[in-house]
Write a structure and sequence with these properties.
Blueprint (H helix, E strand, L loop, with lengths): L1 H35 L9 E5 L5 E5 L3 E5 L33 E5 L9 H7 L4 E6 L1 H15 L8 E3 L11 E6 L4 E7 L4 E5 L10 E8 L11 E4 L15 E5 L2 E3 L4 H19 L6 E5 L6 E2 L5 E2 L16 H11 L5 E4 L2 H4 L6 E3 L9 E5 L4 H13 L9
Parallel strand pairs: 5-8, 5-11, 10-12, 11-14, 14-17
Antiparallel strand pairs: 1-2, 3-4, 6-7, 7-8, 9-10, 12-13, 15-16, 18-19
Keywords: Membrane, Signal-anchor, Transmembrane, Transmembrane helix
Pfam families: PC-Esterase, PMR5N
InterPro entries: TBL, TBL_C, TBL_N
Length: 394
Amino acid sequence: MRGHGKIWGFQTFNGLVAIGSLVSFVVAMSCAFLYLFPRVPPVIHSYGISNSTTSVEKCNVFEGRWIPDESYPLYNASQCPFAEIGFNCLANGRKDKGYAKWRWKPKNCDIPRFDVRAVLETLRGKRIVFVGDSLGRTQWESLICLLMTGVEDKKSVYEVNGNKITKRIRFLAVRFSSFDLRIDFYRSVFLVQPASAPNRAPKRVKSTLRVDKLDEISKDWIDSDILIFNSGHWWTPSKLFEMGCYFQEGKSLKLGMPITTAFKTALNTWASWAETMINTTRTSVFFRSFETSHWSGRNRNSCKVTQHPLSSSKGRDQSSISNIIIKIVGKMTVPVTVLHVTPMVAFRSDGHVGTWSDNPSVPDCSHWCLPGVPDMWNEILLSYLLPGNDISLQ
């Protein structure tokens, strides 16, 4: 019995040592995993906004539904000299006005009602910069038109170089002189630098996109208080390969690089620039996700504009472009807010320009009427900026 007791005690001791070693190994591995792969905070921010009751609930402002609201639209595009005639659907003959009378209602909260005087005072002395394609320019025009409703002397609002709003112009800046406020737009549809074809490139290569270099005008974006980016609509075969435009990294021509890979590379280039060049203690940075179009038909060349929002998103609430944006922004070391509008615009087949543009022979199921859907993007953007709404930019 004494001999068996010694053996049992020895085995028990060895077992405890083995268990302790195993626990230590698991703890060490867990710490190493957390060190190598830290938990990334969500990039689509939830925040507290007072709802119809006295409580404050966590709310993802991009989860919700469109509800009719007779207080909309918030401005008349015909009285706003900065709204392109091509986006002024009512002036171009659209008869049904219902598309302009919808408001986005998040599930658990309300977006603050637009108070133009409060917004103008909040933005006093600021510089706002939009960078992107024509969809970004539409949001830029929308914001100017919204803010002009609170300015008594309309002549105090002007484009700094006297330029008219056109589709191809590289830079536009509107100044609200009474508020020392400037709102700029830079046309940079890819965000990265376009370049001529390198020497000895195949004949089909007419130009390239330097996915490893940000657009050369990026130096003009830095000195801003609010910076809003968008991109995605030009990252298509028809805008790239069919036009003889291919991708380039350094001196290397990437003829076989898929568009999605190139977009990821370009966005990582943008992210590295933002982390290095932008002073985020001063500048609030936003990136708007992809805005779903409503083209239909076998070749996606048919444009049917409805009178009311769709009851189902029909899968348009998902976008590979948006997924890439969210993933890359989520890995950044500086605060960037994703304005994830993809789900909310998926229902708005009624909001497109259609045949009510300055060129009715060419239907348009990509761009939006003004006033219309882009106004809501700006109301959400402004809700992040207004004081007292319990909304954190970071």
